[in-house]
TrEMBL record:
<dbReference type="InterPro" id="IPR051120">
    <property type="entry name" value="ABC_AA/LPS_Transport"/>
</dbReference>
<feature type="domain" description="ABC transporter">
    <location>
        <begin position="5"/>
        <end position="236"/>
    </location>
</feature>
<dbReference type="Pfam" id="PF12399">
    <property type="entry name" value="BCA_ABC_TP_C"/>
</dbReference>
<dbReference type="InterPro" id="IPR003439">
    <property type="entry name" value="ABC_transporter-like_ATP-bd"/>
</dbReference>
<dbReference type="GO" id="GO:0005524">
    <property type="term" value="F:ATP binding"/>
</dbReference>
<dbReference type="InterPro" id="IPR003593">
    <property type="entry name" value="AAA+_ATPase"/>
</dbReference>
<keyword id="KW-0813">Transport</keyword>
<keyword id="KW-0547">Nucleotide-binding</keyword>
<dbReference type="InterPro" id="IPR032823">
    <property type="entry name" value="BCA_ABC_TP_C"/>
</dbReference>
<dbReference type="Pfam" id="PF00005">
    <property type="entry name" value="ABC_tran"/>
</dbReference>
<protein>
    <submittedName>
        <fullName>Branched-chain amino acid transport system ATP-binding protein</fullName>
    </submittedName>
</protein>
<keyword id="KW-0067">ATP-binding</keyword>
<dbReference type="InterPro" id="IPR027417">
    <property type="entry name" value="P-loop_NTPase"/>
</dbReference>
């Protein structure tokens, strides 16, 4: 079976810095894959490269057999792949529904986009806060609205960059239940989270990166026990960051 997403030897350099250094992996429909690694390892840069926000220095990205590297983000989104932003980038002076409608304009006229927004908000149980200002939302509400906005573009592959960063364990469970329900519908996820509990509970497979390089690709248990992964975390103090969240 052809993977839904295939990344071949992706490199992104900033001046002399190899932020992403020859990363290859694949992702299948209905799969949740976690991307872990210490701060500065290149996770966000890799996400940006996949969705067209960051030009590749070299390498190829295939989405369902089609080359998407070199395309603008809205073109990649139209083909079915989009990402959330690490620090929620919602429009603060718009309502929840307006934020989600804006994203749905990718595939619909205004009337259709409003209808799509209604459908997505209902699906994520956000209808009661549809008219709220984004500025007034709680952290878990913001996380769900970020996801709603991404879902309104009707992706087949959704990249989540630390959507659960500010959440309590109970709030994380709520967001994870939503992600699992979407997975059951065939959506594929790449997930960056520093909360190892969430990553271990949610992901079918993990990719670990350090200094831009892929150092492990396997089941969560295999990757968590991988000597280079343990070394990467202990060496960078990211284990301390995780402990602070626990
Ligand atoms: N636009 C840029 N210009 C120059 N260097 C950059 C740029 N974006 C990222 N970098 C550098 O590339 C490396 C990878 O950064 P990136 O943000 O991808 O890491 P990350 O794994 O997402 O980290 P975090 O866990 O802290 O979010 C870092 O050394 C960072 O300083
Ligand atoms: Mg990042």
């Amino acid at each position: 079976m052809q993977p839904l997403l295939q990344a071949d030897a992706i490199c992104v350099t900033f001046g002399g810095l190899k932020a992403v250094d020859g990363v290859s992996f694949s992702l299948n429909a209905g799969e949740i894959v976690g991307l872990i690694g210490p701060n500065g390892a290149g996770k966000t840069t890799l996400f940006n490269a996949l969705v067209g926000l960051q030009p590749l220095t070299s390498g190829t990205v295939w989405l369902d057999g089609e080359r998407v590297c070199g395309l603008k983000p809205h073109k990649v989104a139209r083909l079915g792949m989009t990402k959330t932003f690490q620090n929620a980038a919602l429009f603060p002076d718009m309502s929840v529904k307006e934020n989600v409608t804006t994203a749905a304009l990718l595939r619909h006229d205004l009337k259709g986009a409003r209808a799509k927004a209604d459908t997505v908000l209902r699906k994520l149980d956000l209808t009661p806060i549809a008219d709220a200002d984004v500025a007034d939302l709680t952290f878990p509400q913001k996380a769900l609205v970020e996801m709603a906005r991404a879902l309104a573009t009707e992706p087949r592959v959704l990249l989540l960059d630390e959507v659960m960063a500010a959440l309590t364990p109970a709030e994380m469970d709520e967001v994870m239940a939503v992600i699992r329900a979407l997975k059951a519908e065939g959506l594929a996820f790449l997930v960056v989270e520093h909360h190892m509990r969430a990553i271990m509970a949610l992901c079918d497979r993990l990719l670990a990166v350090n200094f831009g390089r892929l150092i492990a690709d396997g089941t969560p248990a295999q990757v968590a026990a991988h000597p280079q992964v343990i070394e990467a975390y202990l060496g960078h103090g990211a284990a301390g960051k995780e402990a602070a969240h626990a």
